[in-house]
């Protein structure tokens, strides 16, 4: 989307390309996600809502939001330069509203702290172009081994 490609963005995109090819669930649910920016400790991405993301009401399924929390936390950690983003120890998702087919979601993830053994991230999923229209927010803690 025209973002300048800095070292962090290049690293995160390469990390994601490798992860996607080795993760059937990420590839299935998030294969079309686009990482639009990255700085040290922060990433932003876009995902268009497709029928594969639906629940029985034809809106965004909660499991997709939770999967995004898992993915985005790892990507924020990767943006700090790590090649291994560790193992999840806690993921918390709060569902605020929903999205429907064709909606463009913006995902923002921040690494609050990346220590010697644990990393802490916060994630927000919202409708692109409207910071007030939050779909879900959450936290993700990972055990990392530097």
Description:
This protein has 146 residues and is an alpha+beta fold. The chain contains three helices and six strands; from the N terminus they run ααββαββββ. It has helices spanning 7-22, 24-30, 62-78; strands spanning 34-39, 42-48, 87-95, 104-114, 118-127, 134-143. It is globular and about 45 Å long. The termini are far apart. The relative contact order is 0.19. The model has no long low-confidence stretch (mean pLDDT 95).
What is the element layout, followed by pairings?
Blueprint: H1 7-22, H2 24-30, E1 34-39, E2 42-48, H3 62-78, E3 87-95, E4 104-114, E5 118-127, E6 134-143
Antiparallel strand pairs: 1-2, 2-4, 3-6, 4-5, 5-6
User: Which overall shape is indicated by the principal axes computed on the Cα atoms?
Assistant: globular
Mean pLDDT, as a whole number?
A: 95
Could you tell me the strand content as a percent range?
35-45%
Low-pLDDT sequence parts: none
Element-by-element helix/strand order: HHEEHEEEE
Tell me the strand order in the biggest sheet. Answer: 1-2-4-5-6-3
Largest sheet: 6 strands, antiparallel
Computed CA radius of gyration, to the nearest angstrom: 14 Å
- Overall strand count: 6
Give the count of helical stretches: 3
Helix content: 25-40%
Broad structural category: alpha+beta
Distance between the termini: 32 Å
């Amino acid at each position: 989307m025209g973002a300048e490609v800095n070292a962090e963005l290049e690293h995160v995109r390469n990390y994601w390309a490798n992860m996607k090819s080795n993760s059937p669930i990420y590839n299935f649910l998030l294969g079309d996600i686009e990482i639009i920016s990255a700085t040290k400790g922060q990433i932003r991405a876009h995902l268009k809502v497709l029928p594969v993301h639906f629940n029985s009401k034809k809106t965004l399924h909660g499991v997709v939001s939770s999967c995004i929390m898992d993915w985005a936390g790892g990507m924020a950690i990767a943006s700090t330069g790590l090649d291994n983003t560790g193992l999840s120890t806690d993921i918390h998702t709060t569902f605020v509203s929903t999205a429907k087919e064709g909606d463009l979601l913006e995902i923002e993830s921040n690494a609050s702290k990346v220590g010697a053994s644990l990393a802490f991230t916060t994630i927000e999923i919202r409708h692109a172009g409207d910071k007030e229209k939050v779909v879900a927010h959450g936290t993700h803690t990972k055990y990392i081994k530097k």
